[in-house]
Design the sequence.
DNA sequence: CTGATTCGTGCAATATCACGCATAAGCAAG
DNA sequence: CTTGCTTATGCGTGATATTGCACGAATCAG
């Protein structure tokens, strides 16, 4: 049995059964337990599974790809997307942040819209391909894996050289005192720059963001126009609420 | 036993049994193990199989359902993708052009490759999302709709600030006199810049590009390492040709 | 707390690998 | 036919990978 083949089999098995037990596999594959443990250790080092006492479990779901995260709250995201898309008028220049809500916004854009979209998310840019009359500007930089947006000095400089009519911003928390926040420091820096480069800032907020505060502040609540679904809390007086 | 005949037999056997063991094949075919290993090494370089310790496994990318390995025919693009993916060594910095062939290359990348990929194609960048250990640098600019790559002065400047080990370049024509060409002037400018920013240039050419010439020259044939499928024309002496 | 598993590491035996070199076979030009 | 070149092959050698075992530490179950 080839080593690489055995490892592939282990991954297959893990995918099929959800867990691996070292002892049983050693007997089944006719090798020593040490060999199996070594395999599991190496696969774990490659991030392909999580090592536990006695065997292994699937890789931790904490940094799963974005497309799996987009399952939840489909309807709320779609309604927010439609509302956001309606805000973009022909001829405008709009900065569009990354994220699944904004992907839904792209899906809701009219096919013949003629406007300029500026984004630092390759996912968003790729989704804009079918819109023949859109001008799309990509802001480059080092790609952050989790959120799939460009970050760093180059991105900062790219946004600094731009003036847009509107910025549609993604956040992870809206809090009465903390304001608009996000969980990554570098992301916060870029988002702050995006707000500065736009005349108006829009936030499309799913209900789970309301009242939450992440570590790094982007701006105060009063600096953005908030659009959300569900019940309006009393500390969000200016927000626009979509009914279900 | 002719070399080509033996290689064909190896591929047949791999297809039938799902794996190859070097030692057993040497005995069975009455040759030395070195010869078998040499064959496997060469077939791996053509992307037709994956070399592992002790033998070889099918070239099927790891994140594709491995059950259907036997019946699906690999297209020329996929084989070029596999061959191109095999060129990227861990730790390297690689400029990757846009286009469907390079999308196939991304599909063929090993899931745990640790390298730096630089691209001005948001489509390519988005496809790189699942590769946890890749560093991805996006070069920004105005997006050209047809080819979905960033162009313009910002893109030019972005590539100018970079030195990569390798550039995997897309072209629309390879011609004995016109060299490497493309159909858009601005694209040609950027591609020229990409070639200058890399130590080595690779072109993965589908057969329809061979002998074709578009309006704008990027570089001479001799400046790039050409990898293609099908019959080699006599004016492409240095190219590497993948067997069917 | 205690016994039993399981884990990680070091180690040695074996298998496999890549590279260089020499030999032999095939081939084309003279 | 001879010469020179290329290609394929086998072998030696040092390097690398894999495996099983021993042993002490860590972890789990009752």
Sequence:
């Amino acid at each position: 049995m080839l080593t690489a083949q055995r490892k592939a089999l282990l991954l297959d098995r893990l995918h099929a059964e959800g867990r691996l037990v070292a002892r049983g596999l050693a007997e089944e594959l006719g090798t020593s337990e040490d060999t199996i443990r070594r395999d599991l250790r190496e696969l774990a080092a490659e991030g392909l599974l999580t090592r536990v006492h006695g065997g292994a479990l699937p890789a931790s779901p904490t940094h799963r790809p974005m497309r799996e995260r987009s399952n939840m709250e489909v309807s709320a995201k779609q309604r927010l997307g439609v509302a956001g898309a309606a805000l973009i008028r022909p001829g405008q220049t709009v900065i569009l942040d990354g994220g699944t809500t904004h992907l839904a916004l792209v899906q809701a854009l009219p096919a013949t819209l003629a406007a300029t979209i500026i984004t630092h998310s390759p996912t968003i840019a790729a989704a804009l391909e079918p819109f023949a009359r859109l001008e799309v500007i990509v802001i480059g930089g080092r790609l952050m894996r989790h959120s799939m947006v460009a970050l760093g000095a180059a991105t900062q400089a790219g946004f600094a050289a731009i003036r847009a009519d509107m910025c549609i911003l993604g956040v992870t928390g809206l809090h009465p005192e903390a304001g608009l926040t996000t969980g990554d420091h570098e992301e916060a820096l870029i988002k702050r720059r995006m707000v500065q480069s736009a005349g108006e800032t829009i936030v499309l907020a799913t209900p789970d963001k309301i009242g939450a505060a992440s570590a790094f502040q982007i701006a105060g609540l009063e600096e953005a126009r908030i659009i959300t679904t569900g019940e309006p809390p009393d500390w969000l007086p200016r927000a626009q609420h979509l009914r279900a």
Observations:
- The radius of gyration of chain B is 19 Å.
- Helices of chain B lie at 3-17, 22-29, 33-45, 76-87, 100-107, 122-127, 153-160, 185-196.
- Chain B has two domains: 3-58, 76-242.
